[in-house]
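[#protein-structures] MJ: dropping Exopolyphosphatase here for a structure pass
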Amino acid sequence: MATPRNSLRGFLTHAKSALRAAIDSSQRVTFVIGNESADLDSMSCSILYAYIRSMSPPKTAFTPLYVPITNIPASDIQLRPEYLAVFKHANIESKHLITLDDLPALSDIESKLAPQNTKWILVDHNALQGQLGKIYSDRVVGVIDHHDDEGKVTQETGDEPRVIEKTGSCTSLVTNYCRPAWELLSGSALSSGAAHAQGDSLSADAVVVKRWDADIAQLGLASILIDTANLQDENKTTEHDRKAAEYLEAKVMLCPQLAPTFDRTSFYKEINAAKKDIGGLKLQDILRKDYKQWHQGGQKLGVSSVVKCIDFLQKKAGEEGSAESSDAAFLQALESFAKERELDLYTIMTTSTSAKGEFQRELLLWAFNDNAASAAKQFAKDSSDELGLKDWQGSSIADGSHGNGQWRKVWWQRQVQHSRKRVAPLLRETMT
Ligand SMILES: [Mn+2]
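AK: finished. structure tokens for Exopolyphosphatase:
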């Protein structure tokens, strides 16, 4: 049976307790999970898909309820100030989010959550990573994503989607996919509400449903706007993004409480400012807050995306560290981050705005052994043109060779349209 129409807050509360009950009594569960960087896009599109789908599940669904999982422990929510800014608009709080803490501990997850009792739909990635990937990859039955197809998800996905297309935001693909079902839901809810309406004014029921729609629409719209710079970044924005953003904005404008004051650009600015407000975080937290890693050719690559320049990170390291210079403190911090994760290659990609107001990117690449160093040098050679890699005139952190087979380099990445979505596959190609 479909989940009754509900607010986002009500849906998440219900899904969280239903998940607990399913684990306790070995019942089936269908998960919708975003990627391990758990950026705004991953969080919002897993929730949007699960919300709409649970209220209109296909007849053959494994379970009628779809549980959205944000791929981080609950304690990591505080590393994402942009979440909190969006939650206010979506009328939910951190405690409503379903995270890895709501799953059994990884040490005994396989016995408490038997793979055959689960199905998984991936959003914003197309290969289940880490420990979950080892146990549940065979149980993945659908995907909506905007990264390069790693070919891991079966072609035959039945009633679940297999949509992998280039867009600014995965939330755009999810919105467009869910739109027909959402329309039916809103239409039926509004007309049943309208049955009680007097004259032309909206019934109380209809107003409530419009508010619920607007809450979830703002959750989705925030991600699309962040991923496309308010639809202004021509390199990222696609027709899918424009169409989805227009649809979601219209949902907000249908809400009588919000329509008079809602302005898309101020909404974008508010969320974007929250996202950049990372000055209060520790350096290690900044490095792990938007982090992904891959195994390839027997090597391990980690990539941190950071919304501030390297200079900011060095100063931060200097304030926190005990080393004699901020350069040394910065390198120590990076090395311990990489060691903790047993990385062969570690990359930091920064985004920032220059004094002249131009969007800019830096790329730091550190190889920790001979094999990794040859991959890194190959990458530098092969990708220099495509990424527009130019020498970075910073400090001593940017020199090439070191003892112990290590190699390190920092560049300006002048072809700024290329995000981690492009850089990570280029790095992985060289790791053989
Ligand atoms: Mn994404």
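MJ: nice. The radius of gyration is 23 Å.
AK: one more thing. The pocket of manganese (II) ion is lined by residues 41, 124, 146, 170 (CB under 6 Å).
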